[in-house]
Amino acid sequence: MHIDSIKNGVVIDHIKAGKSMEIYNHLELDKLDCTVAIIKNVSSKKMGRKDIIKVDSEMEVDLDVLGYIDPDITVNIIKNEVLCEKKKLTLPNQIKDVVKCKNPRCITTTEQDLPHIFKLTNAETKTYRCIYCESKAK
Amino acid sequence: MRSLIDILSLTTEEIDELIAVAEDIIANPVKYRDKCRYKKLATLFFEPSTRTRLSFEAAMYELGGQVLGFSEANSSSAAKGESVADTARTVSCYADIIAMRHPKEGAPLVASMAASVPIINAGDGGHNHPTQTLTDLLTIKREKGRLNNLTIGFCGDLKFGRTVHSLIEAMSRYTGIKVVLISPYELQLPGYLKKETLDAKGIEYKETTDLSAVMPELDILYMTRVQRERFFNEEDYLRLKDSYILTPEKLVDAKEDLAILHPLPRVNEIHTSVDADPRACYFRQVLNGKFIRMALILKLLEVE
Ligand SMILES: [Zn+2]
Question: What is the pLDDT of residues B156-205, one digit of tens each?
């Protein structure tokens, strides 16, 4: 299988096998006009199998979203066909409108315009809680 | 400008300060009777809770202030579909401080993000009710003279009882606290509170279904209501309801200086014949609720 190398763009690497569509959706890559390649089940020494997403255009990647989904993902910025930056991901302290609160008693269920904000309450267990009702993010 | 949404947003030092002010109010009420002159408290009660609302209103009147507001959602703008944030912005124009009760969890936080005056959470669904916890803490302090080195028994519905959850979280920040959890299996304290609060803070605790057996150990007995609607079947309810009713007979082996608390209203979980026992604190607790709310209003309004 041949995938064109990128001139200017972003390579999202070390995605857990099967997770690429979730990331595609969260980053709203469907809204881009450029070429986007989703490569699934690539063999990897480190991970066995992994997914890769290549975006053939410069774009701002929401690192908080990626950090929340999986902080082990790597983000490579390509300029003139050269890797110019490797972005390190960390667990974000707060995520906004990435996941929705599922607690039926939460104020967000009756007030549709409120942003769904979750705060990191325990980094070890990667626990995020709704700022309004403190329910865990699922 | 600060609000009170969650009891844990107050440090133990701030709680000590509030208790000290409340005790000073109790000792010198005259000194405080004009402290909030020309100030207004808005009580926005999107669901009815007469006793909490009256406590806030009495507190503001005793500070010389004025009160405005509503006591149920269908008489308010919420019935016309106004958002909590817009209501909070609007009422900020009329009042210096707002006490809000709302059936949805997090509504007072939303209000505090929009309002330009302090918001006090007067209960948001089954979530937080920080002024009840402050009331409980003031009562423990006044009855026992301290907030540390105490064995506290929680009895009844420990699964859904938010007053129990908040008081456990608040007390777990003091030293020498032991917790005894007394409930039917069906209504035991949720696992996350045991793990994230009791275990995390190294609090010694035990669980039992037998109130009489642990009675001699207790310095404080915090009673709650076992509600019929919490049970899946009537049979279980009828079988269990009487084991968690406090009677003079169950108090035979209790300490002389036990303090019996209850957030009220009670139905039948404390027999009325216990009321005359000097160890029954629950009506003094109601009075303490007014005093601690006075202290809180002063703190949030930054009145010296
Ligand atoms: Zn929520």
Answer: 999 988 999 999 999 999 999 999 999 998 899 999 999 999 999 999 99
For residue range B77-124, what is the model confidence (pLDDT) as tens digits? 666 788 999 999 999 999 999 999 999 999 999 999 999 999 999 999
CATH number for domain B131-286, candidates 3.40.50.150, 3.40.50.1370, 1.10.1740.10, 3.30.420.10: 3.40.50.1370
Cα distance from A107 to chain B (closest Cα, Å)?
5
Q: Return d(Cα B215, Cα B187) in angstroms, integer.
A: 19
Q: How far apart are CA B276 and CA B288, in angstroms?
A: 19
CB-side exposure of A36: number of CA atoms within 13 Å? 18
Determine whether the interchain pair B109/A131 forms a contact, defined as Cβ–Cβ distance below 8 Å. Answer: yes
- Nearest-neighbour CA in chain A from B215: distance (Å): 34
CA angle B105, B109, B113 (to 5 degrees): 150
Angle at B184 between CA B183 and CA B188, to 5 degrees: 60
Among B86, B93, B85, residue whose Cα is nearest residue B113: B85
CB proximity A118 to B under 8 Å? no
pTM here is: 0.90
CATH class label, A9-87 = alpha beta
* pLDDT of amino acid B76: 65
Give A119's contacts in chain B (Cβ within 8 Å). Answer: none
CA-to-CA dists, residue B171 to A78, B134, B180, B215, angstroms: 54, 11, 13, 20
For tokens 């009828």, what's the residue?
A: B238
Residue whose C-alpha is closest to residue B270's, from B258, B259, B282? B282
Q: Which residue ranges make up each domain of chain A?
A: 9-87, 94-130
Q: Which residues contact B21 (CB under 8 A, 6 or more apart)?
A: B295, B298, B299
| Contact partners, residue B217, CB within 8 Å, separation at least 6 | B151, B153, B178, B180
